[in-house]
Amino acid sequence: MLCPNHDALFDKGLISFQDSGEIISRIKR
Prior knowledge:
- This protein has one helix at about 5-10; strands spanning about 15, 25.
- The chain has about 30 residues and is α+β, with helices and mostly antiparallel strands.
- It has one domain (about 1-29).
- A two-stranded antiparallel ribbon has the order 1-2.
- The longest helix is centred in the first third of the chain and has 8 residues, at about 5-10.
- It is flat, with a radius of gyration of 9 Å.
């Protein structure tokens, strides 16, 4: 289960998850 902030980023396709559970960020700085 994700917190609301992470859920929103996931829904927008800005973060994803590796099979190991690590977060993959697609946000460019």
